[in-house]
User: Fold this.
Amino acid sequence: MDGTQTNSPLPDEALTAHQRETRKLVQAMMGLTGQTASGLALAAGLTPSTVNRFMHKPVRHTLSQRTMLALLTETFLTIREKPPSEWDRRALADLIPALSVYEQGILELAPDVESVIRQARAAAGPQSGLSHYAAEPGPTPNLPVVLVSSQDINVNDGNFDAAPMRTQRPPFLWSDPLAFAILMPDDTLMPRYDAGDMLYVSPAQSLDGPKVDVVLARSGGGFIVAQLVAVTAHSIAIGTLYPIANEFYDRSKMSGAYRIVGTQRLQ
Assistant:
């Protein structure tokens, strides 16, 4: 047995927005294929325990882009063998918003599912997924990625022209035009994040709650990744986990503090 019948998922409030979105997508794929998390992973050529653990156990990261691409490709290969009348419409509606992110990769791996994707979009309905980002359908804008050393970035104005790279925008950030990603520079927030992790940041999210991880933007340029400890009228206290330490910054020297809402390893 793979344990999927005996383990209960973490409560929704214990997950980041990115983890919730990813679990929803995997559950939709399970509904469409009739597979367990482990069974779907095995069919996609992945290690079954990786997906099963993410769906049912406490985890620090979400599934990688490569893993999600493999699962989505396998899903469309599987439903290709079923008549559209047997497709789970609710699961399709949950899955379709992710297609703008992964469709090109799916078609590179399995070009013969292009007609299946068209059928799935039609079956899900014309409005499926559009409310996540904009009223008009069209290409989803890529997400800017910054480094802690990046200069000439103005998050509050949405000016990311100087961002050194872009990445695919995950569906859970479609409604936040100021969202961005930052690469974790070091091990100071281990075990939560490792150096090289891509952290998704949403300025639209509040900083309320315990153990909030944030990105601080310096007024003169550059960013700081840390755990928010306290905010006063004049200072911001942040902390690191490795080593355990607190630092204090003058609020007048910071242009903003933004909540980290998701994490992804790219491999």
